């Protein structure tokens, strides 16, 4: 099973930047798509950005041009650089990884515990 631990959340003023990091550990054969999701109070969890093992990225329209997702396959980490932050970016951000376990079965999903990002106006 894969464990994910996020770091880097906090309080920032509108227009500022934050960088989130997610480290994975545990027993796995490989990790496929990694992503950052976010959930604002009273709202459903939504995808902010994702990246494949080959580096193909996907962004929600609301963060395009402001957020950049990156990963280090060797270190099994994924980062989210968030620039020009807006109050509407305030949410708990969760790291997600889809992986293959040791016996080659794939499609397992693991979530981190979440990190709070608060953007003040």
Plain-language structure description:
With 121 residues, the chain is mostly beta strands. It is built from no helices and eleven strands. The protein is elongated and about 50 Å long.
Sum this structure up briefly:
The chain is mainly β and 121 residues long. The chain is 0% helix and 60% strand.
Structural class: mainly beta
Largest sheet: 7 strands, mixed
Q: What share of the residues does DSSP label as strand, in percent?
A: over 45%
Q: How much helix is in the residues?
A: under 10%
Tell me the total number of β-strands: 11
Shape: elongated
Q: How many whole angstroms does the radius of gyration measure?
A: 14 Å
N- to C-terminal distance: 40 Å
Order of helices and strands: EEEEEEEEEEE
**Mean pLDDT across every amino acid position:** 96
**Which stretches are poorly predicted, pLDDT < 50 over at least 5 residues?**
none
Query: What's the helix count?
Result: 0
Helices and strands, with pairings:
Elements: E1 2-7, E2 10-13, E3 18-26, E4 30-39, E5 46-51, E6 57-59, E7 67-72, E8 77-82, E9 91-100, E10 106-111, E11 115-120
Parallel strand pairs: 2-11
Antiparallel strand pairs: 1-3, 3-8, 4-5, 4-9, 5-6, 7-8, 9-10, 9-11
Please name the defining characteristics of this protein.
single chain; 121 residues; mainly beta; 7-stranded mixed beta sheet; 4-stranded antiparallel beta sheet; 11 strands
